[in-house]
Amino acid sequence: MTTTTSRSPRRRTVVALSIVLIVLVAFVVRLVDIQVVNARTHVSDSLAMGLENSRVEYASRGSIVDENGVVLASAVNRYDVQVDPMLAAKGITTVDAGSDDDSGTTTGWPELAAQIAAVTGQDAAEVEKIVTDAVAENPDSRYAMIAKNVSTEQYRALADLKLPFLSFPPQSGRVYPDGAVGGNLLGFVGSDGQPLAGLENADNACLASTDGKVVFQQSRDGVVLPGTEVVTQPAVDGGTLKLTIDRDLQWYLGQLIAEQVQNTGSLRGTITVVEAKTGKIRALAEYPSVDPNDPTATPADDRGSRAFSSPFEPGSTFKALTTAIGLDSGSYTPETTVTASSREVLGGDARVSDAFSHGANTYTPTGVLIDSSNVGISKFAEMIPKQTRYDYLQKFGMGSLSAIDFPGESAGILHPVGDWDTQTFYNTAFGQGLSVTVPQLVGAYQTIANGGVKIPLSLVEGCTAADGSVTDTPSTEGTQVISTATAKEVGLMLENVATQGELASKIAIPGYRLAIKTGTGEKVDENTGAYKPDAYFTTMIGFAPADDPQYVVAVNLDEPRTVKSSAATAPAFQKAMTQVLKTYRVIPSGTTTPELPKFG
User: Fold this and answer.
1) What is the pLDDT of residues 423-469, one digit of tens each?
2) Domain 247-583 - what CATH class?
3) What CATH architecture does domain 55-212+225-239 belong to?
4) Where do the H-state alpha helices sit in 92-179?
5) Rounded CA gap, 215 and 200, in Å?
6) Has this prediction a pTM greater than 0.85?
7) Most buried among 326, 338, 424, 478, by the most CB within 10 A?
8) What is the distance between the alpha carbons of residues 35 and 25, in angstroms, rounded to a whole number?
């Protein structure tokens, strides 16, 4: 009897524990069923009940940096200012301290609108109207936009107002720390973040970001349910676009070309620097320039790069190419001579004149380049089959886009040989009857400076994606356009232009051998198609040190007025080349230029 009695409570305890254990197991099984086995079904059920929500995970547009990694363009946080009209219309009630009831001071929407407008820079009545119009249309309205893309400072000031009906979804903005430095190349983006011009547009595939998406569950009162956030699409930042440009050199040359354009009364101008052995553009400064932070402050025609988009007649700078073609094709030698007066009729009906009056000179190719004789180069051109000259010009890059393929880039004009009349045959020998862009001309002189090997010009070093992979690296594969011997011969002739020419004293850089050529091309009137009276493009282009060329520099002015000849470009060229040699610490020549004869 005692044994039975003592066992009864123990048996009841075991039974109770078993029941509890069974219940717990049942709960666990059910929990596993809900959260694991049939999780997708329950999520679908919750979605059907309207409990799913999502938010955008914003990614940043990639940066643009110079050759040294200095930031030229970067993403910056901007914010939209959104309002809940239904709540805003009621104003804000502040309960008085120590009050025994819920009474307090109410600040109405008109006063609150004025506080907001003081931060956003809008008119107070305009902000007030946004809410009143929204409520008038729908008393239960919960959304209206007050302002888009306000700065971080403005966002913080608005947040400090502690207005519960305001929200500030972030947006990706764009900032250019150096303003107009390189602005014509960089381009800009619109208020919606879409690229509109320049490298921002051309290399958008590198810079563009992909916003992510996070899906989550929330209760009916808007509370996010813990553990329900799922990244359905990860945010991917844009890549970093590294340019060949040197920011400091670009800034200096930007100041220099602005000064030279203003001093000469020109419409516009450019200074271009190319590394001779790589084809990399180290600077391309233009004036007028555009500040990508505020592109609308600049006339639409000046927001792009005219260096790429506006071809011009290169004038006498082309004589170096005609000389190189004649030498390389075996049509004549450096010792060959022609007799040329300052004005002659050639080929039966073509009239060719020099810029200065002189008698019959027996010119060598060097002498033609030094005196820049149109008649002289025309007579040398007669020795070259015209198809041969045309084919070489194509190899030099005339008539085709550069490897950069910049937005809006022009291919210039190089008419087929079949379209050349007698006058065109001669004119093309000295840079008329055709047109080129600055990159095309610089690319041709890079070929001469680089031993006859043309390297594709480049503005981009590469694109580094968010995962570290690098793409878009420039091609370094060159094309032998003229022989090394020909390039050396022409380079020495251009050195003699620098030492024997009329601008020798204005361009000299102590310790360095220079090779240069000037050009003055007539300007075509876009309205009539005829040459514009007394209007010219003036150019000076050259490389240094001429005994071991490292950099090609070109200065181009559109319609200079105070000085209308190529002398207008000399001061800027001398200063630009001096700065380039300093910037890259180029070793002086150590030798002097051998003098070549002008006349035979």
Assistant:
1) 999 999 999 999 999 999 999 999 999 999 999 999 999 999 988 99
2) alpha beta
3) Alpha-Beta Complex (3.90)
4) 109-120, 124-137, 152-159
5) 32
6) no
7) 326
8) 15
